[in-house]
Amino acid sequence: MRKINYNKRNSKFYDALESQIDLSVLLIGDLLKVKFNDRGYALKESVIVIEDNWFLCEFSGSDITRFPSRIKALASYLNSLELRGEFIVSHEDGLCTVQLLKAHELNLDAEVQASVTESTERIALASSRIGQGRYRKSLFKNSSSCPFTGTTDPRFLIASHIKPWRVSTNQERLDPENGFLLAPHIDALFDKGYISVADTGELMISSAEIEAQLVQWRVDLKVKISGLSDSKKAYLAYHREVIFIQ
Description:
Pfam families: HNH_2 (PF13391). This protein is an alpha+beta fold. Helices cover about 35% and strands about 20% of the residues. The strands form three sheets. A six-stranded antiparallel beta sheet has the order 1-4-3-5-6-2, covered by helices on one side. Helix 5 packs across helix 6 (about 135-140).
């Protein structure tokens, strides 16, 4: 199998991928079809393996520049969703197919699998793990922007858990009170405990270095999130006590 790098920036094919890839279908192993407006190099049914920094594909051609750009865009898009594993893909005359063969990091752990019997609930939980599906939609019902940056473009908003997914119960994993919509750079700081939120809604910062970085990003350090519910405050208490670096 050949090692192929992901696209470094969003491809022109991303709009078609975002509008046609249904995670609820993909996660249960059904075949998905994505139609593009134009044609390109064909690829017979092949296995690709999505890994952290590249993907692997059965490609016998000597010229890697002739690798189908739509398949590369598809692999890059799956990687952007943090999907890891093996997929069967093909492309011909502008039509891509993709089917989950074997998931790696995406699979729910054994404890979760044993506790959930309904396939729809498994899909919801798996989707919540990567910030998609029902969980993401429920966050958008409560807010449509990042409280720290004001970002409103859904493409640049991450459905972030306050109490991390790995230590939450199934109910907490799907609870919209256990989350914020965050811009990617803010999500990275929040997830690693460099920032947190007080019960008053005020931003808490772990160090002078992080404060300087926020200033460089032009984040208002005096921002205050209003209307925090008791449930959200309980999740934030966990974040401050366990995740936040003090």
